Amino acid sequence: MGPAGLLSLVGASGAQAAGTPLLLDLGHTISPGGDDLSHGRALDCWEVRKHNSSEWCRFIRSNPDCRLEGGFLNYLEGVFCVFPPRLLPLAITLYALWLLYLFIILGVTAEKFFCPNLSAISTNLKLSHNVAGVTFLAFGNGAPDVFSAVVAFSDPRTAGLAIGAVFGAGVFVTTVVAGGIALVKPFTAASRPFLRDVIFYMVAVFLTFMVLYFGRITLGEALGYLGLYVFYVFTVVLCTWIHRRQRGEGLAPPRPWEPEMLTDAEEQESLGTNSGDYGEEYRPLLPSQETSLRILTTALSPLDYRKWRRKPWYWRLFKVFRVPVELVLLLTVPVVDPDKDDLNWKRPLNCLHILTSPLLCVLTLKSGAYGLYQIQGVFPVWGLVILVGSVLAIIIFITTSNEQPPKYHCVFAFLGFLASAMWINAAATELVNILRTLGIIFQLSNTVLGLTLLAWGNSIGDTFSDLTMARQGYPRMAFSACFGGIIFNILVGVGLGCLLQMTSSQLVVKLEPDSLLVWVLAGALGLSLVFSFVSVPAQCFQLGKVYGICLIIYYLAFLCVALLTEFRVIHLSTV
């Protein structure tokens, strides 16, 4: 095993000396094999398939490199110890299905719960649409990407997933999604916002390239990532103010926030966070007092049966898979909707949230390690949370009414934000662990898994929403979203991910790109941005089908080169 691979194993086991930089291995290092394990030397877990199938379980359980950080399930022991070798294809199939379901959990949580609460928070803080769009809305849309990057950076063995996902999603969005928008609806791009976003993104990619080149990121550089995003937000606000001042409008006062996260209109009713909103023809002639039990059952229903009957079979099938996720989220995550007269106040359900949301937070933080901790060795933390939450829920239920939300209802938006963030973090942890497991099974590097499965999964929602927006006649808005969102992902994902790994005695995180694929990925993203930066102004910002076809062909070529590099067909010659 080479020095870099050995250091990565030392970093993974937490054996760094004080002041020694943490090394994040962005590839996989292949050991020469042999009897290293029996002599006490840890092997790369990637080598398990090189042993006899009868030794797989012992290899996984005795090798420190095969320990998964965080998460509720041990996927490596499951596939190599629980399932016999002849049922390996069945285990892979089940893992693939669970991987798809994790993407559904991430999408539903971010779309239906995380984003609405962020919108409510921005409304309570009286932020303008521009500031909210590049801060809270960007955070909501990029939550799965950022949380996945932070979780991946937390383990030196999965850091390649973070780099692969951040760069891979950038290439995918700026080529396939942007090209698809030009194919669906040729349009004239907004010149100044386009140039501003591309320049900022090119700077972010260049900074990441330099960090990879020098092989480390310091505290100042990590803070520089976050500072650059703050400067980007300031630039967006300043450009908007100048543009409106030139038009004689000034800064428009903030209006009630209009959430853009709902993909179809029926979900606003089927979410279950409204009660009795059946349309004018279904409203009762006389107002009636609903009982608390009826309000609770209506609010917890994720289905609208009238719309269910009108939808096609494939929509119903997908909805069946979403219903369990939505039901659990409805039980644990409050949602505040500033566009409704009652702000989506459901007294019995919101009182239940006072108990379930904090309980969710302590049981998902560090995979339940804090929640199961016993105070003085006697009373568990989760028991204390239940006790305090029950008392507060009873007090709120007694002092409020079903019809009028309390003055402190906005606090539920912050509680919903925290609870949905914990759900996303838990799902992202499982996602990273199962991707690492699939990489070990198929002997694929974390980088290629990040630029394919993780990048595609996190970008699929943005792809559909942007293309739908373009079909509805808003291609400029969709095209701007392609570049604005991924700026947040790379700057906050890399900056915050590395910053959280630093301690007072360890202010440097090393990033060691051991494979050529990392440089192929970084170069491909930079080249795609340069192509758009040159070609779009050359076309006088008139983007048509030729531009879209060129971008999609570019992505297919990049994908072929990346896969050929992964399988060693393309490699650097050694003298």
From TrEMBL:
<feature type="transmembrane region" description="Helical">
    <location>
        <begin position="410"/>
        <end position="428"/>
    </location>
</feature>
<feature type="transmembrane region" description="Helical">
    <location>
        <begin position="477"/>
        <end position="496"/>
    </location>
</feature>
<keyword id="KW-1133">Transmembrane helix</keyword>
<keyword id="KW-0472">Membrane</keyword>
<feature type="transmembrane region" description="Helical">
    <location>
        <begin position="546"/>
        <end position="565"/>
    </location>
</feature>
<keyword id="KW-0452">Lithium</keyword>
<feature type="transmembrane region" description="Helical">
    <location>
        <begin position="313"/>
        <end position="336"/>
    </location>
</feature>
<keyword id="KW-0325">Glycoprotein</keyword>
<dbReference type="Pfam" id="PF01699">
    <property type="entry name" value="Na_Ca_ex"/>
</dbReference>
<keyword id="KW-0106">Calcium</keyword>
<dbReference type="InterPro" id="IPR044880">
    <property type="entry name" value="NCX_ion-bd_dom_sf"/>
</dbReference>
<keyword id="KW-0812">Transmembrane</keyword>
<feature type="transmembrane region" description="Helical">
    <location>
        <begin position="222"/>
        <end position="242"/>
    </location>
</feature>
<dbReference type="GO" id="GO:0099093">
    <property type="term" value="P:calcium export from the mitochondrion"/>
</dbReference>
<keyword id="KW-0732">Signal</keyword>
<feature type="domain" description="Sodium/calcium exchanger membrane region">
    <location>
        <begin position="413"/>
        <end position="563"/>
    </location>
</feature>
<feature type="transmembrane region" description="Helical">
    <location>
        <begin position="159"/>
        <end position="186"/>
    </location>
</feature>
<dbReference type="InterPro" id="IPR004837">
    <property type="entry name" value="NaCa_Exmemb"/>
</dbReference>
<protein>
    <recommendedName>
        <fullName>Mitochondrial sodium/calcium exchanger protein</fullName>
    </recommendedName>
</protein>
<feature type="transmembrane region" description="Helical">
    <location>
        <begin position="87"/>
        <end position="110"/>
    </location>
</feature>
<keyword id="KW-0813">Transport</keyword>
<dbReference type="GO" id="GO:0006874">
    <property type="term" value="P:intracellular calcium ion homeostasis"/>
</dbReference>
<feature type="transmembrane region" description="Helical">
    <location>
        <begin position="516"/>
        <end position="534"/>
    </location>
</feature>
<keyword id="KW-0915">Sodium</keyword>
<feature type="transmembrane region" description="Helical">
    <location>
        <begin position="379"/>
        <end position="398"/>
    </location>
</feature>
<keyword id="KW-0739">Sodium transport</keyword>
<feature type="transmembrane region" description="Helical">
    <location>
        <begin position="198"/>
        <end position="216"/>
    </location>
</feature>
<keyword id="KW-0496">Mitochondrion</keyword>
<dbReference type="InterPro" id="IPR051359">
    <property type="entry name" value="CaCA_antiporter"/>
</dbReference>
<keyword id="KW-0109">Calcium transport</keyword>
<keyword id="KW-0050">Antiport</keyword>
<comment type="similarity">
    <text>Belongs to the Ca(2+):cation antiporter (CaCA) (TC 2.A.19) family. SLC24A subfamily.</text>
</comment>
<keyword id="KW-0406">Ion transport</keyword>
<feature type="transmembrane region" description="Helical">
    <location>
        <begin position="131"/>
        <end position="153"/>
    </location>
</feature>
<dbReference type="GO" id="GO:0005743">
    <property type="term" value="C:mitochondrial inner membrane"/>
</dbReference>
<keyword id="KW-0716">Sensory transduction</keyword>
<keyword id="KW-0999">Mitochondrion inner membrane</keyword>
<feature type="domain" description="Sodium/calcium exchanger membrane region">
    <location>
        <begin position="96"/>
        <end position="237"/>
    </location>
</feature>
<dbReference type="GO" id="GO:0005432">
    <property type="term" value="F:calcium:sodium antiporter activity"/>
</dbReference>
